[in-house]
Amino acid sequence: MRLAQQQLTRATTVEEYQQIGILIRDSWIEFTRKLFSPSLVPAGTTPPGPADVNGMLSYTFTQWPNCSQKLKKQCEILFSLTNEIQHRTSIDEISTEWCVVNTALVMALLLELDSQANQLASRRYYRCPICGSLRLSVIKDTEVDPIDGPIYDYEQWECQDCDWEHFVNLG
Ligand SMILES: [Zn+2]
């Protein structure tokens, strides 16, 4: 993407804009491959091809239950615009710049969503084991004896959507 941004400042001809379209498309492919994991595809389903950006993204989005439909749509629009830029002979600077800038923004947002999901997934509980809710609260604390001092660390989990409560003694 950085290369596309650099070339945009120099580009003046249709061929140069088309070249930028190719760079953005390649960035999408590389970027989506990093976010996508074959483990997201259900067994018995054919996984998307290595350049199938929309296919890989649709599986990636399933990891982010709160991801908005508008963001998904925006990714599709931006990716299809890169294909348009590299093929259309009447492409102009404004459309190319719009595509470069918005693709960079959307990619930053997707990275943020991915890092949030990874943080959640590395917790002891990601979803409520009873109702499947993602709205879990956890208190980490240490049980302290007034005389002997710290006895053990614990986690106190609570689901905000049902009455599941769980106590973990961490020793
Ligand atoms: Zn629950």
Describe the structure.
With 171 residues, this protein is α+β, with helices and mostly antiparallel strands. The protein has two domains: 120 residues, no CATH class; 34 residues, no CATH class. It is built from five helices and three strands; from the N terminus they run αααααβββ. The chain has a three-stranded antiparallel sheet, with no helix packed on it. It is elongated. The model has no long low-confidence stretch (mean pLDDT 90). The site of zinc ion has 8 residues, from loops. Zinc ion (ZN) binds next to loops.
Summarize this, please?
α2 packs parallel to α3 (53-61), α2 (14-35) runs parallel beside α5 and α3 packs antiparallel against α4 (69-87). The chain is α+β, with helices and mostly antiparallel strands and 171 residues long. Strands 1-2-3 form a three-stranded antiparallel β-sheet, with no helix packed on it.
Provide the low-confidence segments as ranges. none
How far apart the termini lie comes to: 48 Å
Task: Categorize the overall geometry.
Answer: elongated
| Ligands and ions found | zinc ion
Spatial extent as radius of gyration: 23 Å
Give the strand content: 15-25%
Secondary structure tally: strands: 3
Mean pLDDT: 90
Q: Note the total helix count.
A: 5
Largest sheet: 3 strands, antiparallel
**Quaternary status:** single chain
Helix content: 40-55%
- The number of domains is 2
- Cross-sheet strand order for the largest sheet: 1-2-3
> Helix and strand string, N-terminal first?
HHHHHEEE
SS content category: alpha+beta
